[in-house]
Amino acid sequence: MLKIGALVSGGGTNLEAIINSTENGSVPNAKVVTVISSKEGTYALERAKKHNINGVCIKKTDFSDFDQYMQAMIDHLESFEVDLVVLAGFMTVIGEKFLEKYKDRIINIHPSLIPSFCGNGFYGIKVHEAALEKGVKVTGATVHFVNEETDGGPIILQKVVYIEENDTAQSLQQRVMEEAEWKIFPEAIKLISEGKIEVVGNKVRRKN
Ligand code: GAR
Predict the structure, then answer these.
(1) Which atom belonging to ligand 1 lies closest to the Cα atom of 109?
(2) Which ligand 1 atom sits nearest the alpha carbon of residue 89?
(3) Is the Cβ atom of 43 under 6 angstroms away from ligand 1?
(4) CATH class, range 1-102
(5) Could you list the active site residues?
(6) How far separated are the first and last CA of the chain, in Å rounded?
(7) Domain 108-208, CATH 3.40.50.720 — does that match?
């Protein structure tokens, strides 16, 4: 059983999609064992509670330095023997210490087709605003392993979403979630839980 620790900062719809997939049998070999929120009172924590999953808030401002903050998260995840860390709308950059500890065991969902509209400053609704501003005709979502480069780690899965003539950033954000994020995030976890992928250099390779 792959034990997942989910890091969240907001609404937690991706967290919900992951929990549902593990509970309804579509991702049978994985289980969310703890949820860490970077803010107090997020709806993501409420969702964890509803599913009887441990949920805590560990926030940067409670620590005098960044390393201590990272260590507190590592200690918490270790106490739950977490195998895979899932960033489900987590809006804080992960530090070196954490990356080393969970090398090739941290995955993130990003609401665009990386390498478009990603990197520092591209998060949440801003990503969709930038896509509409550029006038691209397709966008989508990407699940990738996390390394020291923001949104630059090996890509696991991507899914395309077509932009419609009357899209607003809000309507596009919702469709990207429904048509792409909530599908490929659980799918990626399934692949990992079944040992079907591996990181080779800066790419993800399917094992046969
Ligand atoms: C999602 O759209 C996710 O892709 C995005 O934040 C949203 C979180 O929603 N993540 C990023 O932009 C990370 N760079 P959720 O809390 O409802 O899952």
Answers:
(1) 4
(2) 8
(3) no
(4) alpha beta
(5) 110
(6) 21
(7) no
